[in-house]
Amino acid sequence: MCIRDRQEVDAEIAMGIDTPIPKDFSGGYTHQRHKQNFFVAQKAGVLYQVLNDEKYAKYIRDMLFQYEAMYKDLPLHPQERSYSRGKLFWQCLNDSNWLFYMSQAYDAIYDYLSAEERETLETNLFRPFADFISLENPQFFNRVHNHSTWGIAAVGMIGLVMNDEELIQRALYGIEDDGRYVTEARLRKMLTHEIDLIEERITRDKHPNKMFFSFANTVATIDFAKKYKGHGWVGIKYQIEPDQDYNEIILHLRFKENDARLQQETPVSYTHLRDHETSL
Fold first, then answer.
1. Which of 23, 29, 95, 185 has its CA 20 to 30 A from that of 178?
2. pLDDT in tens, 141-171
3. Cα-Cα-Cα-Cα dihedral of 35, 60, 20, 120, to 10°?
């Protein structure tokens, strides 16, 4: 972060926030304006962290709430050239760029915002945005392609900021065909995926005596209205001899806490349990 970046952000603050209704391809005003917004917001977040100057946090907050008010009723972008049209931009690639940078800006001011402000932004803006570029556009999100890498990174990053385990797992393991993530089948897929990576990176030829294991969990925490109780699956896949097949321990957990963050921490705290069905 240099003096020139600070001057750029200060100039944008003085000019005022503009979040126009999207209509243009790359190079047009609305495209460039939304692109400039996410670049400047990320820089403002860094400035707030370094200088502790509230004007940068307020600028990001006000911009995010303008997007929150817009996004709730925002249709697909009017330009129809792309196989995966965005909302703010003509393609999901650029929407993913927006979320990638804005998640960093949001993280920088997370503690500056009230709990109610965070709930509003996450419910009306960030979670719907992440769902749009992933669940609503699997032809974009589930590809092995450099464009899709932006979408995966964006969903994972906002998941980390929001402490949303489901979004993090979506970024790591992709989208399930049935749209469900908190299942035994999903957990087994995660365990096998991690073992496959280990065996690919630590070859048996060089490490014939090593025993491998993987640990994973997938959880759905209590919703904001506390209508749906949380539950999850946790498991470990391991060897007790280098040349043996893998063993598995799979647990299904039902959460008793009434706080989502406590529920997310529970699988790590209770991995010593061996019951198949456990209430926590």
1. 95
2. 988 788 999 999 999 999 999 998 889 888 9
3. 120
Closest CA to 129 of 222, 59, 34: 34
Residue 17: burial class (beta carbons within 10 Å; 0-12, 13-18, 19+): middle
The closest of 26, 23, 102 to 68, measured between CA atoms, is 102
Strands 247-254 and 231-238: antiparallel
Distance from chain centroid for Cα 152? 8
Provide the b/e sequence for 202-220 (b: ≥16 CB within 10 Å): eeeeeeeeeebebbbbbbb
Please give the Cα distance from 165 to 41 (Å, whole number). Answer: 25
Q: Is 161:107 a contact under the CB 8 Å cutoff?
A: yes
How far CA 175 is from CA of 50, 101, 183, 250, in Å, comes to: 37, 23, 13, 22
Q: What is the pLDDT of residues 128-143, one digit of tens each?
A: 999 999 999 999 998 8
- Extract the tokens encoding 95: 């929407």
Identify the CA nearest to 164 among candidates 191, 190, 130: 130
User: Which phi and psi (to 5°) does residue 250 adopt?
Assistant: -120, 130
Residue 237: φ, ψ to 5°: -120, 125
